[in-house]
Design goal:
Layout lengths: L5 H4 L4 H24 L3 H26 L26
């Protein structure tokens, strides 16, 4: 069901974000391990920071998936209405 207001009511594809986070988790752990074992502490630190970011994103995604159809609508759930009381940017 299209309403024409999708940009203001757009929701994230949480299952796709979940799989991408898991993929990023695997690579960040691999990079952290590989750079630590080869003696490159700078790159290991970068992979460590990336690992923390991936874990935070993964926690947010799992939390939103557990919140139910408000954040993970299926085909039978119509889109929610945008808040009309807010001022829009750029004079629209």
């Amino acid at each position: 069901m299209r309403t024409g207001s999708e940009p203001t009511t757009a929701l994230s594809a949480l299952r796709m974000r979940l799989w991408l986070s898991l993929w990023g988790l695997a690579w960040a752990v691999f990079g952290l391990t590989a750079f630590t074992l080869t003696g490159r502490p700078g790159w290991a630190a970068v992979c460590g920071v990336l690992l923390v970011l991936v874990l935070v994103d993964l926690a947010v995604v799992v939390h939103r998936i557990h919140q139910g159809p408000r954040f993970q609508p299926g085909r039978t759930v119509p889109p929610h209405e945008a808040e009309h009381g807010r001022r829009r940017r750029y004079g629209h």
